[in-house]
Amino acid sequence: MAISFDKAASEKMTLEEFFNYDDRTDAMYEFEDGKLLLMTAESEINRRIAMFLLVCLVQLGIPAYRLSMKTEIVTTGSRVRVPDLVVFSEELATAMEGAKRSTIMPEMPPPLLVVEVISPNQSSRDYRYKRSEYGARGITEYWIVDPIAQKVTVLEWVEGFYEERVYVGDNAIASLVFPELKLTATQILQG
Predict the structure, then answer these.
(1) What are 89-98's pLDDT values in tens digits?
(2) N or C, fewer C-beta in 10 Å, the chain?
(3) Confidence at residue 43, expressed as pLDDT on a 0 to 100 scale
(4) Based on the number of CB atoms within 10 Å of its own CB, is 124 exposed (0-12), middle (13-18) or buried (19 or more)?
(5) How far is CA 114 from CA 6, 30, 174, in A?
(6) Can you list the domains of the chain with their CATH numbers?
(7) How many CA atoms lie within 13 A of 13 on its CB side?
(8) Strands 161-167 and 72-74
(9) Beta strands 72-74 and 103-104, pairing class
């Protein structure tokens, strides 16, 4: 029998219980400190931005098996995040082969790039909490695309910390992971 979200959200659960949780809906959840966090439906602009970036990465020649949308990442402790777009390294793609669930476990190599497109009322989670969690996971590059504030924040993992660069308007995005990527903040934000 399925457990309702209200009941599950009010009780703490383990990571294993989270992985086994099924409310028999298509709802997606992140997991934070034993609690389910219902992910709100994506806005059309958020969906378009994520798809635009996916297409740009394919055009760069990144094979489809290294690109994923909505893959779970176990970050620190018992937290599971579900970014909008993830780029796997070859090693991570190999580790994900045959997985029953699209989840990057702690013992797997980290992704090369994680992209979060900010939804209303989610900015502190994306700018603050996920920044430290993705950093602790050793993710090389973390992009925060903010259609509300009209900016793209690129965080690059350098010597144990994220260095932050903010792009607006026609500023060209500089990526250490994908230096051949030629995009401006405006292009990304228009999706």
Answers:
(1) 999 999 999 8
(2) N
(3) 82
(4) exposed
(5) 30, 15, 15
(6) 1-39 (no CATH), 43-190 (3.90.1570.10)
(7) 23
(8) unpaired
(9) parallel
